[in-house]
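tool=predict chain=A
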Amino acid sequence: MRFRPRNTAWLAALGVLLAVVAIAGVASAQVIMALLALYLAAAAASVFELDSRRLRDSVPASPLTRMRMSPQAREAVERARRRTNYAPAGLTLLDVGLITLHSSSEGMLMRRSRTVSLDDNGVRPYMTLHVAPESADRHALIRYEILDADGQVQFVHEMKTYLRDGEMNILADHHLPLAGNERLSSAGEWDLRVFVDGGLLGALSFTMSPSLEERRRQFAREQDEAASRLREVEVDDVPVSLEDLLRSRSRDKNQ
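tool=predict ok
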């Protein structure tokens, strides 16, 4: 809202005319009140200019746009809002997730999944945005982060993206290598976080399962521990036969 002093001159003149009409008594009281109300409304609209862009930015996404949000996007936005009050005007997260890459006999397979394995070749984050016209036609800084089960950041990627109005699929330019990556050892619940212009837009959890080699090592460790426990069993704890038990009782009686 901005004050516009250039309109005060004609408002003053209009006010004088209204006063003359009221003093002359040529109009009824009801007409005078109606003219006064119109004058005050015109004065408010003329003296103060509303920032229409700011008004549009304060309006939340339409119900139809929110209905198009995927369950993953709703969860990610809700988690982000619990951590920060960042809510960019004109931007709605419609979908968010990961695309895994896995080599097979049929070639490189890509799939969207919330369960990732350390045997996969790599994983690449993506998101789908709905951009309102007033937030379009500009560059925005998109940032992806992937955190492991211990809270350590294992992947960071930033990219400048030109926003166009409507629906946009934004895929990270790079992927996080998984198979053979010695830095990645903690399976469990990981986090994907997406940022727009430095603000957290969504936070989605996903499952990282261990590799087959790690599962084999875990199974071997469990087998070794079980064998060790069996070796620790004392010989005296082994049950004796009925014949040995009767013979022992007979010797006790003879003594």
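Residues 49-59 have pLDDT under 50 and may be disordered. The first strand starts at residue 2 and ends at 3.
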